[in-house]
Amino acid sequence: MKIVEANIKVRYQETDQMGVVYHGNYLVWFEIGRTEFLEALGFKYAEMEKEGIVSPVVDANLQFKSPIRYGDDVVIKTWVDQYDGLKVVYAYEIVDGEGKTAVTGTTSHVCVKKDSFRPVSTRKKFPELHQAYIQAKGDL
């Protein structure tokens, strides 16, 4: 299984009144991890969008384990948890500077046509990405 890591230094504006990272920012960090993951596979969202395809989040799940604060260094670990040729589920682990898991979660995505939001088979439309997902997941 391929795991890609992205590093983040927590900015002040990402924290809430309690001095911890506001929960909504973790979804932004998941997107950073997902983008890094795709780039590590040799693909870019922007190229898919040029072909009229987008990949919206259709489900998100987060579990909060411990707080992260302003100035902390964190690592976003991202991998493919499930993939069936149409839907891909990315999994994430956000780890603090001491190696402690702070947040885990998943997001589910389906490729759709930008103009109609009709589903598109990754297997058919992007066969190279399809193969890369299978290899990254370790289902060879």
Automatic annotation (TrEMBL):
Q: What is its EC number?
A: 3.1.2.-
Q: Which top EC class is named for this enzyme in its record?
A: hydrolase
* The entry's keywords: Hydrolase
Family per similarity comment = Belongs to the 4-hydroxybenzoyl-CoA thioesterase family.
SUPFAM superfamilies xref list:
Thioesterase/thiol ester dehydrase-isomerase (SSF54637)
Q: Which GO MF term does the entry hold, naming one?
A: fatty acyl-CoA hydrolase activity
- Show the InterPro entries listed in the entry: 4-hydroxybenzoyl-CoA_TE, HotDog_dom_sf, YbgC/YbaW
| Listed CDD domains | 4HBT
Q: What is this protein called?
A: YbgC/FadM family acyl-CoA thioesterase
The organism named in the record is Salinibacillus xinjiangensis
